[in-house]
Structure formats: C-alpha cells, structure tokens
Amino acid sequence: VGHPLALLQQGHHALGRADLVVLVHCHQRLVETQAAQQLTRDAGVFAGHGVDQIEHVQRLLDSFARWVGRDLISREGPPSDQARRLFEAQCIVVSHGTEPDPVLNYGNAAALALWEMDLASFVRTPSRLTAEPMHRDERARLLERTRRDAYVDDYQGIRISRSGRRFRIERAIVWNLVDAAGGHRGQAATFDRWTPLDAGDGV
Q: Over the stretch 37-82, which tens digit does the pLDDT of each residue have?
C-alpha cells in the first residue's frame, strides 16, 4: 500500500474512509515509535555509552547536593544507573558549559521533549537561544546571580522551543557546577512546572 503519510498527502482515491482512519492511526504509531527510538538512543548516550557523559551527570548531581543540601534524584546504584535515572526523570534538567557563549551540554528526556529537539541538536545549541531576544537580558541577570550566590531556587521566566512554542517556567532551581577541586564547570537548572503561553502572553 505504501507509506501511510505519503498516501495521505497524495489523497489516495482508492481508499475508503475506514482505510484512511487506519492509515492515520498507523502514521501516529509510526511517529510515536520513531520518537521512542530516538529517546532510547539518547538515553544510551548518557547512560551507558560515554564515560564523559556519566562523569558530567555525577558532577551535576554532586553540585546540586552541595549547594541545595539534598539529592536531586536517588543516588542508589552505580553512576551509570544514576545517569539513566536522571535522563528518565519527570522533571526538566539541563546544563551548559563555560564557553564565552555557553553551549548546552546536557538535557534529559523531559527537556528534549519540551524544547522539541533530539539530543544531538540540543547539545550544539547556545543556551541563550532557549530564550527569546527580549528575555535574554533577564536570563543573563539570573545566571550572574547564580554565579554569585551558588544557586537560586525561585526563578521563573519565559522560554521558547525549537518550533517557536513559548512557555513560562516556574520555581526553577539554577545552580553552579563545580568539579572536585571546586573549579567552575558551568551551570544547570531543573524545574517541574511550566505553563504554555499563547502568542503575546508574557511579552
């Protein structure tokens, strides 16, 4: 019969209404399957196929506990288990590095879904691009406040996904990442509350 989306786009006249319903359902399942496969591949990158990534997650978790005074997730099991647990957590977790224009270097599955990116695209993105131009000065002030105070736990602000979908994040925790020697290694953020915005909201 052919690929379901191709048949729908071509307006396949030989198909009845029931056939079209089946094709739409098949296409939806195909999209869901591809998304799940991508998340599985992404999970593998951070949870078992890179020592650097697992070490980064340990630094992220250790730094959170150091500044906030509690664990972000359960620390049971080896670092690879913790990396997978963080990647699959329901809360959003992201981080960026120390470049002059900091680039994102971590996003868990919930973050990738919210910003509508796969992992490969996400970790090539300057973190400033997660906010609209008119909100970037406010974001810069947040990061400077975090750099000074080690962490903040009351942040809210507007962000934008890859497709242009806007949302307000609420009660975010932002913290400095440090290595074992106390050297600055970037910043991270987590939140589990956000509100979709219509065009013009929050401007």
A: 544 555 555 444 467 889 999 999 999 999 999 999 999 999 999 9
Q: Whole-angstrom Cα distance, residue 79 to residue 84? A: 9
- At 81-93, the pLDDT tens digits run 999 999 999 999 9
The owner of tokens 């307006």 is 11
Distance (Å, rounded) from C-alpha 153 to C-alpha 151?
A: 7
Give DSSP secondary structure letters for 130-171: GS-GGGHHHHHHHHHHHHHHSEEEEEEEEEE-TTS-EEEEEE
* The dihedral formed by the CA atoms of 37, 97, 50 and 120, expressed in degrees to the nearest 10: 30
Round to whole Å and give the CA distance between 155 and 29. Answer: 37
Tokens linked to 10: 């071509």
Tokens found for residue 20: 């079209």
**Dist CA 85 CA 91 (whole Å):** 11
| Separation of first and last alpha carbons in the chain | 48
Q: Is the pTM of this model over 0.90?
A: no
